[in-house]
Amino acid sequence: MQPPQSAIPDFYYALFAFYEPALTILGFIGALSDPVTTHNTQAPWPAHSPPPATLPKASIVTVIQLAHVCALMGVVNFFVLRAVRRYLASQVAVQEKIVRALMIPLLIGDVMHLYVTLWALGDEKWDFARWSPMLWTTVLLGLTLMIPRIMWHLGIWRYMDSRDSLRVREQEQEQEQSPPIMGEKDGDRTS
């Protein structure tokens, strides 16, 4: 095992510092440009009651505020993860603690977002044929963030200080104690 470079490797960094903010910002722009459609496509409407053509100001404000909060969370991800990788590059264990402090509430948010969405659909939650494209998008894109967040917490595809630090130290000690192979310079050894 190589010594770690970051507690948030490139795969997770790209996902949470770029993909997630892009999704949330695009969602905010969509809600800002057309709050009525954003509102009306969140869930299926009863056949005998079509969605409203206009919304009360309070509903428009609520839709835009909710979209803004989502965009804000995406932007927070970008700045926190960027700062962690940039300013704590030599302190992977500290990076991991800070990223974990960010990822725990986001994972709770992912789970609750899925739960609340399904709960709010009531009896129609399992009637997939009636789900709107927006509802499908919300659920599926949410899973593209929730599943990798669970993977990050489980230590999949990344260094975990609590799990891997002892193994890295043992390997470094072995490398220091083993004599160099003939014709090899100190920096030429690979493991």
From TrEMBL:
<keyword id="KW-1133">Transmembrane helix</keyword>
<feature type="transmembrane region" description="Helical">
    <location>
        <begin position="134"/>
        <end position="157"/>
    </location>
</feature>
<dbReference type="Pfam" id="PF24803">
    <property type="entry name" value="DUF7704"/>
</dbReference>
<feature type="transmembrane region" description="Helical">
    <location>
        <begin position="12"/>
        <end position="32"/>
    </location>
</feature>
<feature type="transmembrane region" description="Helical">
    <location>
        <begin position="102"/>
        <end position="122"/>
    </location>
</feature>
<keyword id="KW-0472">Membrane</keyword>
<feature type="domain" description="DUF7704">
    <location>
        <begin position="6"/>
        <end position="156"/>
    </location>
</feature>
<keyword id="KW-0812">Transmembrane</keyword>
<dbReference type="InterPro" id="IPR056121">
    <property type="entry name" value="DUF7704"/>
</dbReference>
<feature type="transmembrane region" description="Helical">
    <location>
        <begin position="58"/>
        <end position="81"/>
    </location>
</feature>
<feature type="region of interest" description="Disordered">
    <location>
        <begin position="168"/>
        <end position="191"/>
    </location>
</feature>
<protein>
    <recommendedName>
        <fullName>DUF7704 domain-containing protein</fullName>
    </recommendedName>
</protein>
